Each structure stands twice: as C-alpha cells, then as structure tokens.
Amino acid sequence: MDSPGKDLIVTAAHCLESTSDVFVPGYHDGVAPYGVWHLERVIVPAQWSQDSDQDYDVAFAVVTPLNGRDIQSVTGGYALGIDQGTAAPVTITGYPETSEEPITCTNSISAFSSTQLEIACTGFTGGTSGSPWLVGGSPGTIIGVIGGYEEGGDTPDISYSVVFGPSVQTFYDQAVSYGN
Fold this sequence. Notes:
Blueprint: E1 8-11, E2 22-23, E3 37-43, H1 46-51, E4 59-63, H2 71-75, E5 79-80, E6 90-94, E7 103-107, E8 109-111, E9 116-120, E10 132-135, E11 141-145, E12 158-162, H3 166-179
Protein name: Trypsin-like peptidase domain-containing protein
InterPro entries: Glutamyl_endopeptidase, Peptidase_S1_PA, Peptidase_S1_PA_chymotrypsin, TRYPSIN_HIS
Keywords: Signal
C-alpha cells in the first residue's frame, strides 16, 4: 500500500496475529515471486483487539525490508481510498487456502449497512480474508478488504468489508507514524 515509509500493507484484523506472520505477494503454484516478507509491527484497532468489533476488522502492518529493499519499491503501492462510495466496480484477488492459485472477481458493491460493504463473488472461501477491494486503473485504490461482517462472510459467494471512512484514515495515519 502506498505510504511515506513505503513499508505498509493492509488486511483484515482477523488475519494478523503477530509479527510471526509473513506477507508473500503474488504467491501462486508454490512460488513466491517477490519473496517472503516479515512483519516488523502489526497495528490493529483497539476496538478489534478488545472486542472483535466487526466494524474495525482492518489492520495495517509495517513490513521489514528484504535484501535492502522496501515492499513498495518491489510490488508497488495502492492508494488508500476513503469515503469512495459504491459507484465504481471493485476487483478482488484472493488466495483460497484450498488452491495454489489466486482467484479474481470484478463486480459492483453495495452498502450492507452504514459501516459495512458487500460484494457477490463466487468462490471466495477461507484464505481469501484480507484481500484488497480495488477500484480505478493502475495502480488503483484500496477501498476495503475482505473482513468485517462474519469476518468477511459466512458463504463463499458474498464477501464483506468495513467501510473505509474517517476512522480507517485515522488508523492509517497512526500506522504511518509507526513506520517512520
């Protein structure tokens, strides 16, 4: 994700336990084309860590450099989209735990509630949580991640995300301060 320190990723809070987790961008067929990246710090909202509040199921992590390079210089970085609404189609690429290959879906989104968004995409089973919801062209803007209600959904065909509004912006700003 685009950040001043070029070292942040965003995902669902329920996906991150500790800095022992790793980030493997572009993983497919047992191959990690960009390497295995370790996390330096995990930043989770207090509302999630204390109460598992589904409206705060979003987290940022500061990624440790690998071979002297920061994650954003290797993979690029998506902009953070705040208050983007539901007009633009969203593309999600996820990594089901039962497959060695990612799946991708593009579809319209709608408001599930004032704090949650939903999208119909078939086959987004366990393992796809935390996948970014992207709008726009290259490099794109992240307006959500699979998470939130039912930790992203209770069926593989409907997924959810916390609305990225002012509270996510504030949380991003806190994550940036940790990374610098």
